[in-house]
User: Which sequence fits this backbone?
C-alpha cells in the first residue's frame, strides 16, 4: 500500500518532499480494525508540491484523495489518511521559521 501511495503521488504531483508514515500499528487494537489482516491501513503523509499552488487545503486534500480512491475503497485498504499539504513556498517559510527557532534556542543556552 505504501508503495502505491508513493508511486501515485510521485507520478501525479512531482513532490519536492514526500514523507509517508505508516501508523497502522498504532491503530491495530481499534474495534474497526478487528478482523482486518492488512498491516497498511493508517497513514500520515507530508507532501510539498507546486501542484498545490493556488489551492486551499480542502482542494489539495481532494486532489490526493482522488489519486488514492482505489486504495481507499478496497477491502483492507487505507482506513485513515492524515495529510499535510504545502506549496514549495509554504514549505520554505516553515523551514525558515524552524531554523530561526533552533537558532534562538541555541543562543538562549549559551
Assistant:
Amino acid at each position: 500500500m505504501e508503495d502505491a501511495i508513493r508511486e501515485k503521488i510521485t507520478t501525479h504531483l512531482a513532490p519536492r518532499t514526500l514523507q509517508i508514515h505508516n501508523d497502522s500499528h498504532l491503530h491495530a487494537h481499534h474495534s474497526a480494525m478487528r478482523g482486518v489482516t492488512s498491516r497498511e491501513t493508517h497513514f500520515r503523509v507530508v507532501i510539498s508540491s507546486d501542484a498545490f499552488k493556488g489551492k486551499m487545503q480542502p482542494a489539495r486534500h481532494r486532489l490526493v484523495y482522488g489519486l488514492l480512491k482505489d486504495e481507499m475503497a478496497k477491502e483492507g485498504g487505507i482506513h485513515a489518511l492524515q495529510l499535510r499539504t504545502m506549496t514549495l513556498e509554504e514549505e520554505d517559510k516553515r523551514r525558515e521559521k524552524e531554523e530561526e527557532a533552533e537558532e534562538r534556542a541555541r543562543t538562549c543556552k549559551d
